[in-house]
Write a structure and sequence with these properties.
about 120 residues, about 35% helix, globular, Anti-sigma factor antagonist, STAS_dom, Anti-sigma_ant
Length: about 120
């Protein structure tokens, strides 16, 4: 799924690995791209399941306050369903925003998708 408006590009690639859902976010997650993200998240799992979600962020080149809000939204959705969320390959610009906002204390981080899949498999 991709969203593009006013020159802003945001793509979401979805993959399933060993019972985990991996979303690779590419481009700019801002006011224009977050509706596609919300739609993707809301359609990922059925009620009653404990989602195991990995967000792979190495190709995310920009994330504004709307993007941070979307990350908080997915965290709340996953944890309220009894699941786990791991952010992997977080770019420095996003790590800095998460740290400044205090959100880094709420997220679990991993170095790679493979590491996150192993961690979620042990859950």
């Amino acid at each position: 799924m991709s969203a593009s408006q006013h020159g802003h590009n945001f793509d979401i690639r979805v993959e399933r690995l060993d019972g985990c859902t991996v979303l690779t976010l590419v481009g700019e997650m801002d006011f224009h791209g977050t509706p596609a993200f919300y739609a993707q998240i809301d359609g990922l799992w059925t009620p009653g399941g404990a989602p195991r979600l990995i967000l792979e962020l190495a190709e995310l080149i920009f994330c504004d306050s709307a993007g941070l809000g979307a990350l908080v939204y997915v965290f709340n959705q996953v944890t309220s369903a009894g699941g786990r969320l791991i952010l992997v390959a977080v770019p420095d610009h996003l790590r800095r925003r998460l740290r400044i906002s205090g959100l880094d204390n709420h997220f679990e981080f991993g170095e790679s998708v493979e590491q996150a899949v192993l961690a979620l498999g042990a859950a």
